[in-house]
Amino acid sequence: MSHVALFTLESLLLALGAVLLGSGIGQLARRLGASAWAVGLVVVPLAVAAPVFAVTINTPIQERYNFTLGMILGSTVVNVGFALGTAAILRPMVGSSRFVSSTISVLLVAVLLFWFVCRDSVVSRVDTIILLAGFVAAVAYLVWVAKEEPELAKAPFEAWSIRRWPVWIAVPVALLGIGALVGGAWLIVPEAVQISRLQPRSSPHLFGFLTVVLASSLALLWVTECAARNRHADLAIGTVAVANLCNLLLLPAVAALVAPFGVANVTLMNDIPATALITFLLLVPFLNGLQISRLEGFILLTASAVYIAWQLRR
User: Fold this and answer.
1) Residue 314 has pLDDT above 80, yes or no
2) pLDDT class of 103 with cuts at 50, 70, 90
3) Which of 25, 81, 87, 162 would bridge with 228, disulfide CB 3.0–4.6 Å?
4) How many domains does the chain have?
5) Model-level pTM?
6) What value does the mean pLDDT take over residues 4-23?
7) 29: domain CATH number?
């Protein structure tokens, strides 16, 4: 019970760190002249993706566990399936943003690029150049698209903007968020593995990584649920798409710089294709005017649940 309590506390610490980091950095960006649209477009997705980054970078540094590839694939599936799926079940979504549509198309290319980089069973520091080049190209294209976005489509992203804080509040909040992310990421993996040893039917390593993935995605789940409840479909879908774009291009590039990681043949032949398949389910809202019905949300949720069950039974 002590391990469960600590794991829960550390999960909440990661989620709180993401919220504090996003709030602090967002306020600093506003103070530096960034628009509320830019903050909602960039800062919110990066903040909710921060827990996954923190855990992934921390695990090889600890030299005890290496969940790098599992975190990349698992968080991508959870973001699409659980976050968007539950949000659509809560309230069907209808978006209109050209930026969000473009982000989905770029995300589909990104998952194929990541698969290509993994083809030789290792993500090396040389592969970092390819991934970063892809990320820079994606960002450049999306910035160009964002400049053409009509004011009406910007409204959901601007909804996250709150009354401006003074710098002397924003800076400590951002630093506190970074501290919570680093501390939570450093402590959560050992606790997850301790809990996983009570699961005789599954690999402790696998169960531990899945629980960490779910815990790291709490902030993104909260953002998408709030956005869906407030009828901000563009924000919900866009946050997931941008976060996954970072997961598939920026995260493995940074992780490979810290410690190059291998890709097992079974992962290359099974896990990555399964992740790509679930990501390509976003073609449905992409081709349907960014509409996600409750039925489609249920399909997304079911697909991610099947993926996790399949992983646990291997």
Assistant:
1) no
2) very high
3) 87
4) 1
5) 0.86
6) 79
7) 1.20.1420.30
**3-state secondary structure string across the chain:** CHHHHHHHHHHHHHHHHHHHHHHHHHHHHHHCCCCHHHHHHHHHHHHHHHHHHHHHHHHHHHCCCCCHHHHHHHHHHHHHHHHHHHHHHHCCEECCCHHHHHHHHHHHHHHHHHHHHHHHCEECHHHHHHHHHHHHHHHHHHHHHHHCCCHHHHHHHHCCCCCCCCHHHHHHHHHHHHHHHHHHHHHHHHHHHHHHCCCCCCCHHHHHHHHHHHHHCHHHHHHHHHHHHCCCHHHHHHHHHHHHHHHHHHHHHHHHHHCCEECCHHHHHHHHHHHHHHHHHHHHHHHCCCEECHHHHHHHHHHHHHHHHHHHHC
| Residue 196: per-residue pLDDT | 63
Q: Which domain holds residue 98?
A: 2-313
Say what the pLDDT of residue 105 is.
94
